[in-house]
Structure formats: C-alpha cells, structure tokens
Amino acid sequence: MRYLFLLTLYISSLLLTGCQPEKTTPTKSTVVVFGTLVDIVVYDEHKKNAEQAIAKVEATFQEMHKEWHAWEKGGIVSKINQAISHQKPIQVPQSVKDFIETSQKLSQQSQGLFDPGIGSLIGLWGFHSEQWQGPPPTKERILAWLNNKPSIANISFEGNQLISSNKYVQLDFGGNAKGLAIDMALNTLEEAGIKNALVSIGGDMKVIGTKNNQAWSIGIQNPKNPETAIAQIALNDGESIVTSGTYQRYFDWQGQRYSHILNPNTGYPANSFSSVTVIHSDATTADSAATALLIAGPENWLKIAQAMGVTQAFCIDQSGKIFQTKAISKRIKLL
After folding, report:
1. Which of 208, 231, 227, 209 is nearest to 218 (CA)?
2. Of 18, 135, 281, 303, which sits with the fewest C-beta atoms within 10 Å of its C-beta?
C-alpha cells in the first residue's frame, strides 16, 4: 500500500487537536479500491449532503478500478492493449483520449522517464500480480524489450480512433491513474457544494479548504523507518501531495531488492532515490512527476522537475540525504 502512513498520521492529528473542540464532526468513508485503502474525509454541516457526495466519489472509484487497471479484463485499458497487440485501431471515449494525451505530454516533459506505455516491462518483472517474489527477468529478456522500446509516444489518434505504431506498447497507468482519480474525486465533492475535504488513495492525497479552520497537517514517511515521519507539512486549499518510494512495492531475490518503479531507459528498477514527494495543484501531474523524479535521481531530478512545472519536491536518496526545491524547503518541517 502506497503511503498509508501519511493518512494514519493525519487521522491521529484529528484526535490531538488540543483544547479547542472541533466545530464540525467529519463524515468519513474508507473503501478498498485500486488495490489499496481509499479514505474520504468531509467537513460539512449537512451530514446527508456529505454522505451523498461521498457515495458519488465511491461509485466513480469503483468504475475507474474496473476500467483503468491494465490487467482488469473487460476494462478500457485492457481492450486498448489487446487492440494494440493485434495492430488494430480502437475507438475510445473522449475522456480516455484526453487522459492519454495528458499522459503523453507529461511523459514528454519527463524526457520519457514517466511512461505509461511500458506495461509489458512491468508485466515482465511480475508487478501486475498481487504477489511480487521474483526471480527477476533475464538480461536477454530485458534487452529484447529495450530493442522494441515501446512508449506511450507511439500512440496517435485519428479523431477518437486510437492507433499505435508499435505493437509492443501496453498501457499501464499505475503511475498516474490514482492522481486522476483524486482530481476527479475533489471535483465531484466541489460540485456537490463541499468546501472542506481530504481524499487519500493509499496515502497520496489532495485537500480542499481546511480542517475546521486549521491547515491539513501531513507527515512524510521516513523510508528507512516506515513507521515514523521524517518531515511534516501543511497543505493549502487545492493542493495535492504524492509520494513515490522504492520500498513501497518490491521483492528481494538472492540478497538484492528490486523495486516496482522501473526505468524505461534501462529496463531495470530505479535505485538512487528511495522516495520522492511532490506537491502540486494537479494530482495527476504530481503523481506522474513523483515517478519521473525518483527515476531521474540526484543528478537530473531538478531539471526534470522544472520541465514538468514542479516547484515543490522533496527527495531522499538511499543513504538518507535530502534534496529539495527552494519552494518546499520554506514550508516543510524536518522531524
């Protein structure tokens, strides 16, 4: 589960608000979607309105889980991947086209480090399954994949008809579909008149308004000791916070750890940064950028962040050294 600790810390803070009583009791919901816990917290005086808005968000999440999981048979991503592998065009809804084109733009900005077109590589490493245990793929299989070099850049559209010039492209939006879901959830809540809320998917979250006139205080997990926080930050209205970490999903094989975050340029897991946290008004951008910066590593992360329009990033390498942008350093509190 990605960064469940962040939400746990947040929930704990609700119980430790000092002497001032809370003005409004939050309406909460927790469901399992996207293979992780999804938490929705709404502060609204009208409980029925809050419950109805939350129900709409939950329904949207369930539909997205079915449609956007690369290995969920019958979903739109699965249908697209089948069509690509058979070199056949496929008609897609406008919303799907828009999201793919957004992802293509983010991938281009990241210089290909974030690339949802590498689903076949993710499958090669076994990260499409619920259990990750190795062994890692052979060098020969990695080289064969690199020789074909599938990418989301190989996809084009004629109207709403999707075409791929590379039959080896397999879409997997695990790197930013949760960001899309978070953005959609907050839009749904705002349309319902909700002014103060938090939505978390596995600890990646976005907020609107405040928590009874207090900032949403969020902890950033310590990669070396996941049960503790290494830093704390207050989120402002409309901000999202997303973290990618090499220790979140991985398997150990013959004394070596292999993370699920794969570098499209090498075919192997990224191993320089242990975690990257990005704050951005757009959760889809934050989700994509966190992956790209983690792969970029200490030498290139800042350049990629600037190219993706990210001004607030907090990175930790495998030795525990911290790299951060000036904007986030002014507001983050190290613990």
Report:
1. 231
2. 18
Report the distance separating Cα 246 and Cα 177, nearest Å. Answer: 18
Residue 221 scores a pLDDT above 50 = yes
Prediction pTM value = 0.89
Q: How far is CA 14 from CA 17, 20, 275, in A?
A: 6, 12, 26
pLDDT band at 86, cuts 50/70/90? very high
- Please give the structure tokens belonging to residue 23: 């003005």
Question: What are the structure tokens assigned to 248, written together?
Answer: 């979140």
The residue count of the chain comes to 335
The two tokens of residue 199 are: 């939505």
Percent of the chain with pLDDT over 70: 91
By C-alpha distance, which of 7, 58, 51 is closest to 28? 51
The tokens describing 239, both together, are 């901000």
Please give the single-letter amino acid code of residue 19: C
- Please state, in angstroms and rounded to a whole number, the distance separating the CA atoms of residues 6 and 263: 26
Q: Is 7 helix (H, G, I), strand (E, B) or coil?
A: helix
Q: Which residues contact 154 (CB under 8 A, 6 or more apart)?
A: 117, 164, 165, 166, 169
> Pick from 176, 210, 193: which is nearest to 278 by CA?
176
Average confidence (pLDDT) over 22-27: 79
Number of helices (H) and strands (E) in the chain: give both, helices first: 9, 16
Task: Compute CA distances 266 → 103, 185, 322, whole Å.
Answer: 21, 35, 25
Quote the tokens at residue 182.
Answer: 């978070």
Helix (H, G, I), strand (E, B) or coil at 163: strand
